[in-house]
Automatic annotation (TrEMBL):
Name of the molecule in the record: Succinylglutamate desuccinylase/Aspartoacylase catalytic domain-containing protein
The organism of origin for this protein: Bosea lathyri
Domain (Succinylglutamate desuccinylase/Aspartoacylase catalytic) ranges: 40-223
Pfam family name, one: AstE_AspA_cat
SUPFAM superfamilies per the UniProt record, alphabetical: Zn-dependent exopeptidases
Keyword Metal-binding: yes
Superkingdom per UniProt: Bacteria
GO MF: hydrolase activity, acting on carbon-nitrogen (but not peptide) bonds, in linear amides; hydrolase activity, acting on ester bonds; metal ion binding
PANTHER family reported for this sequence: BLL3975 PROTEIN
Length: 322
């Protein structure tokens, strides 16, 4: 573990994460950055839980480099790539243990490299902050519309009203309401009575516009929380609160080649054509029509042209009433 980590140290400090995992073949050292200035709120920003979700890692590395103590009005801890064993190998999961990090929280201090990194986050970083912001993307498999969702408890410093205000401060169009999973970072935070917000957006090829959306959203939220001085004008919320479950997924009925007929964020009706599934072999050329299973908004779409039977093509979220 990091024996010299001191979250209360004034100024800006970078800490090497490699003592947590020990030496791993072919990896460069990565870090966690802690910035302290003032008595304002405290927040942990984490990226790269899934190693192939690179948008979050790029944006958080930018923020760790660019934010200075004079910009901060409390405590900001930034870990751009917690799963650096996976990200540096171009993998979603660590090749050193094959574990899905977002199903192994709170971790084990004497476990696998993945479990040790989880344990450092929950055991050392969680107690140093009042809010977790866990930044994700679609990875190599899917593209995701920019959205946020969050969790709090009656014992959390950030209450329900404060959490709703923060999520709407992102300036995103979509705020999701979802049940948590205990073994995820946000699930572990909830069990520790730490409020959390998960950020989604991007995936597939890296797009400059999506990086800007992610960075701007974080800067607005951090300012609204009071952890940094404002750098952007606030954006009044005019979006949608929604839910999304398995009933909104549309899957491939057979192997084939996907042609999307709608875009991320589009509003669709039940039964509307959302994709075509072209045959990958044989004499037939006519595609099968894939229809939306329900009305709502397109939240995710596969980045793969070829899909296997029952593989996700996309999913729909349903607006909340009122």
């Amino acid at each position: 573990m990091l024996t010299d980590f001191d979250p209360s140290r004034a100024g800006k400090t970078f800490y090497d994460l490699s003592p947590i995992t020990g030496a791993l073949d072919g990896l460069s050292a990565d870090y966690v950055c802690c910035i302290n200035n003032g008595t304002g709120p405290s927040v942990l920003l984490c990226g790269g839980i899934h190693g192939d979700e690179y948008e979050a890692q790029i944006v958080l590395r930018r923020l760790a480099e660019r934010l200075e103590p004079a910009d901060v009005t409390g405590r900001v801890i930034i870990m751009p790539s917690i799963n650096f064993p996976a990200s540096q190998k171009g993998k979603r999961l660590s090749p050193f243990d094959g574990q899905n990090m977002n199903r192994f929280f709170p971790g084990k201090a004497e476990g696998t490299p993945t479990e040790r990194l989880c344990a450092f986050m929950t055991g050392t970083l969680f107690p140093a902050v009042d809010l977790l912001i866990d930044v994700h993307a679609g990875g190599s498999d899917v593209s995701v519309v920019p959205m946020v969702f969050g969790f709090t408890t009656p014992k959390s410093v950030v209450d329900d009203a404060g959490l709703k205000r923060l999520m709407e401060a992102w300036g995103y169009r979509f705020v999701q309401h979802v049940d948590g999973i205990d073994e995820t970072a946000c699930g572990a935070a909830k069990l520790a009575d730490l409020a959390s917000i998960e950020v989604e957006g991007g995936g597939g090829r890296m797009k400059s516009a999506e990086l800007t959306i992610m960075e701007d959203g974080l800067l607005r939220a951090l300012a609204a929380y009071g952890a940094i001085k404002p750098k952007l004008e606030p954006v009044p919320f005019s979006g949608v609160h929604f839910t999304a479950g398995p009933e909104g997924q549309y899957l491939a009925p057979e192997a084939g080649l996907v042609e999307h007929l709608v875009s991320l964020g589009d509003e669709v009706t039940a039964g509307q054509r959302v994709a075509l599934l072209h045959p990958a072999a044989g004499e037939r050329s006519a595609p099968k029509v894939i229809a939306s299973p329900m009305p709502g908004y397109v939240l995710r779409q596969t980045e793969h042209a070829f899909v296997s039977p029952k593989q996700l093509i996309g999913n729909i979220g349903t607006p909340l009433e009122g």
